[in-house]
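Appendix C: a fully annotated inverse folding record. The material below is reproduced so that readers can follow the format used throughout the book. The structure is listed first as tokens, followed by the designed sequence.
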């Protein structure tokens, strides 16, 4: 080892005596060997890198994972890729682990909401083959969206970035703007509920069957759920949420309480209306 280092030092001294010729190192392999030995020696004193997150049974279903992620602070820190990129408009910053605050997402609420353009897309819920999912907060009053990007890496779901950006406006009546008004104003709501309103609910005499009937306006106000007026949550499993879509489906899903309501909207003559209501709560 001493002979190798001495040889390298001698070559350096000889090379410095002449600057007229291009510096060519015929003993580059020796230099690499010295650097390699030094690196191996230094690495003995380095701390071991943190182990990659190991997938759990909850990782099979994103819905199971996200509940555990939002409820368990230790798991959450293990599943965030630090430093976490945080985008706000055109600005980017990084959140270090020491500055991370536990995020409950929607688990402190009685229910969360999901948005779809068409009924077929609702089949994506529970799909165990997904590898990329985004969790979204839509702030209706400020028209901002906060999106969390999750990727499944080697079987384990990891939060890789957060993006905060404005919600784009539609040239037609915007659904987010409409729903904010619909949820907060009962008079406006009464003008945008189709009569008779198609109604689907569980058969009280048979839990495995549903009843399809209709409601008048007064019955809608008697049966309707409490609607979120400030913000909507959404889990994007891969479904499209097109601003120009003529239909929107808002699912209200309970957290551990069996609550399940679905509101079906369509744009008619340029204006949104509620045309079907489904209550299959257990």
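Designed amino acids, in order:
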């Amino acid at each position: 080892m001493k002979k190798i280092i001495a040889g390298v030092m001698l070559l350096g001294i000889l090379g410095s005596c002449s600057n007229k010729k291009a510096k060519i190192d015929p003993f580059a392999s020796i230099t690499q060997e010295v650097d390699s030995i030094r690196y191996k020696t230094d690495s003995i004193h380095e701390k071991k890198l943190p182990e990659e997150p190991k997938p759990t049974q909850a990782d099979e279903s994103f819905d199971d994972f996200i509940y555990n992620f939002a409820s368990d602070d230790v798991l959450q820190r293990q599943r965030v890729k630090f430093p976490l990129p945080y985008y706000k408009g055109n600005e980017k910053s990084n959140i270090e682990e020491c500055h991370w605050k536990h995020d409950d997402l929607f688990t402190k609420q009685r229910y969360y909401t999901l948005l779809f353009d068409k009924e077929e897309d609702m089949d994506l819920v529970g799909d165990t083959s997904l590898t990329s999912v985004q969790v979204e907060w839509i702030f209706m009053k400020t028209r901002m969206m906060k999106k969390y990007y999750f990727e499944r890496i080697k079987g384990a779901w990891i939060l890789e970035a957060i993006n905060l950006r404005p919600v784009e406006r539609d040239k037609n009546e915007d659904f987010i703007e409409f729903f904010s008004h619909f949820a907060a104003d009962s008079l406006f709501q009464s003008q945008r509920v189709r009569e008779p309103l198609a109604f689907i609910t569980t058969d009280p005499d048979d839990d495995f069957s549903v009843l399809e009937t209709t409601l008048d306006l007064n019955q809608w106000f008697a049966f309707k759920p409490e609607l979120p007026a400030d913000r909507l949550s959404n889990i994007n499993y891969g479904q499209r949420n097109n601003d120009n879509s003529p239909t929107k489906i808002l699912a209200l899903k309970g957290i551990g309480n069996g609550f399940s309501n679905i509101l079906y909207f369509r744009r008619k003559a340029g204006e949104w209306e509620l045309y079907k209501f489904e209550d299959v709560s257990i």
